[in-house]
Amino acid sequence: MADNEGQSQQTQDIKPQDEQSQDTAPINVKVVSSTGDEVFFKIKRNTKLSKLQGAYATKVGKDVASIRFLYDGARINDDDTPQSLDMEDNDTIDVMVEQVGGSAMSSYQYSRKS
Amino acid sequence: MNSRKRQASDSLLPTRSIKHQRTEESQSILSRWRKLGVEVFRLGQETFQILTASGEHVESESEPTSKPKAATTGPSAPSQFNHSHLPSRPPIPIEFQRPMDPPRRSQLSSSQPSRSESSRAMNGSAMSPPSTLTGYTSATSIASTSKAENPNSQFLKLMASSGHSTQDIQRFKFQGQIRHRPHILAKEHKNIVQQTRRRDREELIQELYNLRRKAGYDQGYDTFKNDYINYAGRLEILSRRDVLSPSSSLTDLRAKSNTPTLSHRHSFSDDVSPEFLERAIRRMRQSLSSPPPKPFAPSHDLLRRSARQKDEKIEQSLRPKAPPLPAALPADLDAQVTNLLTKRGIVSKIAREQVSDKDISRLLPCQWLNDEIINFYGQMILSRSEASKENPGVNGVVGGKNKPLNVHYFNTFFWSKMRIEGYERSRLAKWTKKFDIFAKDVILIPINHNNSHWTAAAINFRRKRIESFDSMSLDRQQVFKTLRQYLDLEHRNKKKQPFDFTGWEDYDPEDTPQQENGYDCGVFTCQFLESLSRGEEIFNFTQRDMSYLRRRMIWEIGNAKFLGAP
Q1: How much is the ipTM here?
Q2: pTM score > 0.90 for this model?
Q3: Which domain of life is it from (chain B) (predicted)?
């Protein structure tokens, strides 16, 4: 289900914005949420990934500040580009939600773990 | 005869070793003989003058001078002499009384019927040790004295028989012999004194016995009285004389000068002096009235405390503890912290991590920490490790205790990925494409449990341990299981063979510092990771230090460097 939604539109949104000059053609990037939802983007190698992040946040209806984008475990900064991160075609970006923790107060968790 | 008989039964008389007495006696006799010689010479001279004047009895007077040396004994002689002469004796001049102690004299005379006895007292030969020391009966001593007396008495008899003037006789008496007739009530008086003393002594012994009983003496009264007291008294007398009495063949000068003759007059042969009893009672009372010594019985607490102190000492010598953390930041740093908290937007950046004012405000007291803070702190740890790898010695002593290990820090999402999606699906192999985790000392992993709890885990390659540090000490078997799984898969992926777990163990120390509230686990986790990155296994912080550590973390994150680092 998730596949259908993501693939269709998003590719077009980002491509037209930036100059087509330079080295390459746009690459396909898959953004996967922790729940397994996937969204596909087509993005030029020198386009800032912050655009992708903003587009994704609006797509899923969340505040950008509350989600984290990881590429191979490393946090993606606002001024990173696919080029700076050595991204390849069909690479995956992981989206994580904010994690908090204070204590393991709930017994529910304890029993579930053990 | 009469006097001798009475004295034999008189236990009051002081006795003394015969040998002793003889030597002293012979000494005094010698001197007396010398004086006697002088006297005889003078007497002869005077007699001659008188005779030449009157022209009478020249031959009969010259004989007695040699007679005393024959030493013929006659016990009855002195009494004869005295009885005939005393009544007519004139008073003694003052200067002649000097050598005699008047009170002593009177006391002695009250109980002393015989002349020989009084002479002994005056000559000093009667100064004998207490009767308890020597078992000799008074009869023998009297026998010896009476023998020794003989020369004098003989001479007096001769003088008396010769009908000399009283002046001459008196001059002789000054040399040593003065005699009183006993008082008619002397006997009764003596008996009363004896009885009183006996009764007093009995009372004292009884009292001492009662006191002793209180102190735990459990023998009968008779044993106490007859054996113990006498023995103790004798021991005391001996010790007061410093040494045992010298050989009996020597003259005991000290005994002669120190021992009072008076007290022995009424003492009993088998008795100790009442002074001794009084002292003993006084001592006994003192020791009874003083508080009893407390037996040393260490309580359980005391034993435990001393055991703990020993443990701490050993622990201290094995692993010198770092000084405890301060209660608060220095004033200038604290001001900087306050300043940092007023910033808006992105407050600090390090490598790919950044924190905003919202994130950093979570370090204020009682707030849960989020992944941004933890990852930022983890990135600081990682950067420090990498910095020290490139430039060893940057963090102080090379190879010292604080030298950062070669660590890798996986961010907080590693656990979520591995736990929820698994190694393959979350493409964790790509996370380590730029380095080899098996070449590291320690892999640090913060774990978020169900978005409510932070713990720290580590893969310790140096010690071959999978470690879990939980400030709530919950069961973390899942951590070990998942991390072992990861290690194996990573090893298969990178090294193309299964990971060798021989010698590896799960490490879940019981003495992990524990949080005491519902919000500090993030701080604990950060501090666990930081300590682990320095190879520290004893964590130098507790719940008490949390407010300080939160404050310090604001400073450290705000300045993107550890406190105390260059």
Answers
A1: 0.78
A2: no
A3: Eukaryota
